[in-house]
Fold this sequence. Notes:
Low-confidence stretches: 1-5
Enzyme class: transferase
Keywords: Glycosyltransferase, Transferase
Shape: globular
CATH class of the largest domain: Alpha Beta
Pfam family, one: UDPGT
EC number: 2.4.1.-
CATH architecture of the largest domain: 3-Layer(aba) Sandwich
Strand order of the largest sheet: 3-2-1-4-5-8-9
GO molecular function: UDP-glycosyltransferase activity
Amino acid sequence: MDPKLQKTSVLMLPWLAHGHISPFFELAKKLSQYNFHIYFCSTPINLKPLRENPFPNKNKIQLIDLHLPSSLLPPHYHTTKDLPPHLMSTLKTAFDESKPVFCDVLKTLEPDILIYDFLQPWAPAAAIELNIRAVMFLLTGGATTSFLMHHCINPGVEFPFPEFRFPEAEVMKFINFMFDTANGITNGDRYFKCLERSNNMVLVKTSREIEAKYIDYCSVLTKKEMVSVGALVQEPEVKVDDTRTLNWLKKKEPSSVVFVSFGSEYFLSKKEMNEIALGLELSEVSFIWVVRFHGEGRDCRSIEEALPDGFLKRIGERGLIVENWAPQLKILEHPSIGGFVSHCGWSSTMEGMMFGVPIIAMPMQLDQPLNARLVVKFGVGIEVPRESGRIFQKEEMARVIKQVVMEEEGKEVRKKAKEVSQKMREIGDAEMDMIVEKLLLLLI
Length: 444
């Protein structure tokens, strides 16, 4: 059976964060190439940028509004973007209370399959009641997923992969996320109920090229088949607003610039920002740095106030500071880029690997320390060392940047990054063909 000849409808429901919506939407675009009709469901504020920008196979991807109760949060807060941290629990509660609206969507659209995220166990429950197949889609990598599962299912038992053994305090810092509560339900309860309700398999945003043994171990732990969907890195697109950054890059030598970004949901303290600025200055390497401020309560009115005195004047044309957003994918694929100073969020890590850019790992929170270990294990980057509980030090940051971009001892890292990129690209189409076949088998 040729999967491209079979018509199937899929409803996709990601959690309300850009870091979740983006990979879900990339999967939607790929499935649409196989004659799937996709209903992509989220809140109007999250769907707004998708509606405003063209995307391929638009006739096969239908955007569906999910209206959360505005009595709990105003509509502009129906997303994690610029959401004050103290309202995160309220957003999860509002998401839970959208269940009746979501059930109406299910009954109206009658999709063949629901693909859902890790925080909404009510979604697969509603699908199962209507005899709709439900499949969970995890956006953490295989190593992180198996680490989390292991320590929840086998507390106190040593993790079987020594490269990911952390001091107990560090393990608990990560696992404690599972005990956060919203609407009287812990993240752990949400996670495992979502897992339990997934039909036979779970999709995982990773590539078997780099994480096969962790995916397989996770399958053993959960008694569900873990199926890799690939990196799901979107094709870079040039927009009018990107010209300043790309024109600046054109003037630089090949592999001479580092791109510096700590993701869309981590905001540096003024002390962290100061140390990172001085580290970039000490490195003597050209850089593009995306500086983000939280939408509310920012303690600086301007970039100049946030950075060390005289910093912008001292770096001159060697550095480019961009506030809030930059065309990350266009930057990473540019031949002038020689390193990626990253927090090692999973999507950013996969993007760095896919484009063959060596990673200078500076993990901040959540799964990022595990992702940084993976970067080091596969030889595609080097982690900036720091003492437990301390912020990164400018001298160490500068040393690692120089090592990765300029020095002979970083040559092997640069070479390995290119090799892994090539292998991930080669396996990508095969992984998607396999996913399509497995989704269609659910309907037999």
